[in-house]
């Protein structure tokens, strides 16, 4: 049985995790961290890690500052951390990497297993088609999402670029430039509207054919499922920095 501490337990993803974990036999929630102390059912909620009386794997769905606080607390107290917050700066990411020298830290901008399979497929497609096909990424999210492009779109783009020896330059807006598409462009477009949970398309556009890789999230439950799997995976690991590629390695022979 893996004990889990949820930072951001009052939020949408925190509530989704509570629902998902409630019916499982391989893990349980022992505490929550959020802006106000209280209870979520039988789960005690604290305002600070300093007040935490128990240990477990931390799942963070909060903010960049909260993610860093979770990782630093985990490093100081030997608690593995699954960091799911988005919008982290380079300094924040560096803090996570520093923490990973003392405790296992799992980091992904998107916790959906399906999205991360898409990323691996995009790597393979780039290996085969890169240089001959133009590549475009289109991401769609709900009207309240603050960042654009999404962290997931950038994850996809970075995976493609890594596979292509960093040959691509990201282009987010073509409205101000009247010129044909460059060979080194990788276009990233963002759509915001309604209640779209999250959709990502990767288009490999050739002269006479188009290959499209697409993922659509039907609910936030897919991100909670991925976070739970990451927590279960991380509980048995040594200190280090882990990603979805590590989790998928046992599931996909091509990773």
From TrEMBL:
Q: What metabolic or biological pathway is this protein involved in?
A: Amino-acid biosynthesis; L-lysine biosynthesis via DAP pathway; (S)-tetrahydrodipicolinate from L-aspartate: step 4/4
- Family under the similarity heading: Belongs to the DapB family.
From the UniProt record, which GO molecular function terms apply?
Answer: 4-hydroxy-tetrahydrodipicolinate reductase; NAD binding; NADP binding; oxidoreductase activity, acting on CH or CH2 groups, NAD or NADP as acceptor
Q: What is its EC number?
A: 1.17.1.8
What this chain does, per the entry, is described as: Catalyzes the conversion of 4-hydroxy-tetrahydrodipicolinate (HTPA) to tetrahydrodipicolinate.
Fetch the NCBIfam families from UniProt.
Answer: dapB (TIGR00036)
Q: What is this protein called?
A: 4-hydroxy-tetrahydrodipicolinate reductase
Record-annotated Dihydrodipicolinate reductase C-terminal domain positions? 114-248
Primary localization class, coarse = cytoplasm
What does it catalyze? (S)-2,3,4,5-tetrahydrodipicolinate + NADP(+) + H2O = (2S,4S)-4-hydroxy-2,3,4,5-tetrahydrodipicolinate + NADPH + H(+); (S)-2,3,4,5-tetrahydrodipicolinate + NAD(+) + H2O = (2S,4S)-4-hydroxy-2,3,4,5-tetrahydrodipicolinate + NADH + H(+)
Q: Where does (S)-2,3,4,5-tetrahydrodipicolinate bind?
A: 142, 151-152
Subunit structure and binding partners: Homotetramer.
Q: Which SUPFAM superfamilies match?
A: Glyceraldehyde-3-phosphate dehydrogenase-like, C-terminal domain, NAD(P)-binding Rossmann-fold domains
HAMAP family cross-referenced by the UniProt entry: DapB
Q: Which UniProt keywords apply?
A: Amino-acid biosynthesis, Cytoplasm, Diaminopimelate biosynthesis, Lysine biosynthesis, NAD, NADP, Oxidoreductase
Instruction: Please tell me the species this chain comes from.
Output: Subdoligranulum variabile
Q: Where in the cell is it found?
A: Cytoplasm
- Please give the Pfam families that the UniProt record associates with this protein: DapB_C, DapB_N
Binding locations of NAD(+): 8-13, 34, 84-86, 108-111
List cellular component terms (GO): cytosol
What is its EC class? oxidoreductase
State the InterPro entries in the record.
DapB_C (IPR022663), DapB_N (IPR000846), DapB_N_CS (IPR022664), DHDPR_bac (IPR023940), NAD(P)-bd_dom_sf (IPR036291)
């Amino acid at each position: 049985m893996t004990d889990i501490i949820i930072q951001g337990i009052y939020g949408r993803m925190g509530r989704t995790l509570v629902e998902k974990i409630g019916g499982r036999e391989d893990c349980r929630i022992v505490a929550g961290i959020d802006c106000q102390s209280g209870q979520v059912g039988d789960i005690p909620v604290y305002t600070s890690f300093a007040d935490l009386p128990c240990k477990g794997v931390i799942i963070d769905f909060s903010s960049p500052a909260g993610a860093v606080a979770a990782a630093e607390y985990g490093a100081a107290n030997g608690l593995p951390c699954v960091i799911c917050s988005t919008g982290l700066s380079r300094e924040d990411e560096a803090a996570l990497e520093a923490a990973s020298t003392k405790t296992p830290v799992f980091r992904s901008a998107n916790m959906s297993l399906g999205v991360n399979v898409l990323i691996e497929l995009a790597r393979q497609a780039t290996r085969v088609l890169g240089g001959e096909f133009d590549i475009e990424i289109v991401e769609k999210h709900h009207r309240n999402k603050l960042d654009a492009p999404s962290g997931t779109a950038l994850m996809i783009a970075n995976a493609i670029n890594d596979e292509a020896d960093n040959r691509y330059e990201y282009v987010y807006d073509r409205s101000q430039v009247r010129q044909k598409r460059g060979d080194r462009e990788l276009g990233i477009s963002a759509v915001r509207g309604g209640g779209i949970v999250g959709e990502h398309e990767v288009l490999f556009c050739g002269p006479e054919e188009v290959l499209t890789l697409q993922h659509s999230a039907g609910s936030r439950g897919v991100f909670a499922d991925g976070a739970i799997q990451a927590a279960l995976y991380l509980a048995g690991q040594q200190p280090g920095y882990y990603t979805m590629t590590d989790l998928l390695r046992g599931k996909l022979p091509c990773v």
